[in-house]
Specification:
The protein is an alpha+beta fold. It has ten helices and 17 strands. The strands form four sheets. Strands 4-5-6-7-1-8 form a six-stranded antiparallel beta sheet, with helices on both faces. The protein has a five-stranded mixed beta sheet with strand order 15-14-13-16-17. Helix 5 runs parallel beside helix 7. It is globular, with a radius of gyration of 25 Å. The two termini are about 40 Å apart.
């Protein structure tokens, strides 16, 4: 049990979108020396610290740990258990869809937790202040006030216009400086449109794998938090971390140049648009080196994306219909999670179950259970899509490619 669960970044984005719509207060608190609060169940001994000696040389005593320490591998997990029990004792319920989000049904307060950082969402300041008092009585807390900066993400709020904007301009500048790209010439696409990345051949010049992996990882964090536009690029360049060539390195640097031109861009949630959930699914047929397709989806609430993905499919699709149908399953699983999460925090949007798709045949295949010579080989798991269409969990609607929001998650 060495793993400390942290809140999904998608959950934080959903909560920020809801805060923009309903004008919730967002505050942040930090637990001082959190790991020292956890109580150990295992029997663990340590040497006496330097300068603190009890007993003579012959006895050579050791200390038995009663609390967890920083550096102990189970410390994060022990701390998580401790704070969970405390929050439950003051009336909070843990969500099933994200175990690091807690809701108090009576006060309506929601807490999202990233190890020892707490983001508190509440309808009014009085109930938030009550919670802060309870937390201060139990732990040594640092009150960081209204949420402005969290995990490298800047949160800008305009209350009058009901807008919340999140970006990572500070983080982006840091990574550009780290790789000496701050004065590079900006490009207008994250990956050059003609780029076909393939595995290293015997004749190609290899790049430094450590440097390459570090570059991909730095870009990946920007993508995971606030930059869905980088998802497809990361999906491409991260496949070659084992043996990168100079071509792959050039592609990674191209992404950094794109970042240089769009340093302040992020996601904006407009509360005036209301609780409107839109879901887009797309696929790029046979676009990979091994002819696998790429699935992409993006979901928006209040006009800003809350969850998105670009992923290589597990098997080769034999037609564009099949690749779009497989992409629909990828999107559907996320839609089910999204509905469940929103329902648990008191927002039932199960009637907003529309997924936009730009392939008429895939929609027909989902609606019509005919066994066709061309589709009889499709794996049973993908027909879960058809089941959900039949029982009304999901509806499909056609959108032409030029209106397809998820298109950028499957193609350069």
């Amino acid at each position: 049990d060495t793993y400390a669960p942290v809140v999904k970044l998608a959950s934080i984005r959903i909560l920020l979108a809801i805060a923009a719509i309903y004008g919730l207060e967002i505050h942040q608190m930090d637990v001082v020396t959190a790991f020292l609060a956890g109580d150990l169940e295992e029997e663990i001994y340590m040497e006496q610290p330097e300068g603190f000696k009890v007993g003579t040389k012959e006895e050579d005593l050791v200390c038995r740990l009663r609390k967890s320490l920083y550096g102990l591998k189970q410390a994060p997990r022990v701390w998580n258990r401790k704070i969970r029990d405390f929050l439950k004792s003051i009336g909070f319920d843990q969500l099933y869809s994200d175990p690091c989000v807690y809701i108090n049904k009576t006060t309506g307060i929601i807490i999202a937790m990233w190890v020892d950082d707490l983001i508190i969402f509440g309808k009014d300041m009085a109930s938030i202040n009550d919670l802060k008092v309870q937390l201060n009585e139990e732990y040594e807390m640092k009150d960081l006030g209204e949420l402005k900066y969290f995990l490298g993400i800047q949160v800008h709020r305009d209350r009058e216009r009901k807008i919340i904007h999140i970006s990572q301009s500070g983080y982006n500048r840091t990574i550009l400086e780290r790789y000496g790209m701050e004065s590079s010439k900006p490009t207008n696409t994250p990956l050059s449109s003609g780029a076909r990345l393939t595995k290293a051949t015997a004749t190609e010049i290899l790049a430094d794998p450590k440097e390459y992996q570090s570059m991909v990882g730095s870009l990946m964090y920007a993508m995971l938090a606030t930059r869905p536009d980088l998802a497809q690029t990361i999906q491409q360049i991260s496949q070659f971390s084992q043996k990168p060539t100079t071509t792959h390195e050039k592609a990674a640097k191209h992404a950094l140049r794109y970042l240089n031109g769009t340093i302040d861009q992020g996601i904006t949630y407009n509360g005036n648009l209301g609780m409107k959930l839109e879901f887009w699914s797309d696929a790029n047929w046979g676009g990979e080196e091994g002819r696998e397709s790429v699935s992409g989806f993006v979901a928006t609430i209040a006009g800003g994306s809350v969850t998105y993905s670009s992923k290589k499919q597990g098997s080769v699709a034999l037609s564009s219909t099949e690749s779009e149908y497989m992409a629909l399953l990828h999107a559907l699983k996320e839609l089910i999670w999204l509905h469940r999460f929103l329902k648990e925090i008191g927002y039932d949007v199960s009637n907003q179950n529309l997924i936009y798709c730009d392939n008429q045949s895939a929609i027909a295949l989902a609606h019509n259970p005919e066994h066709h010579a061309r589709t009889k080989h499709i794996d049973i798991q993908y027909h879960f899509v058809r089941n959900c269409v039949e029982d009304g969990t999901m509806r499909l609607e056609y959108r032409p490619t030029e209106d397809m929001v998820a298109d950028g998650l499957t193609k350069a």
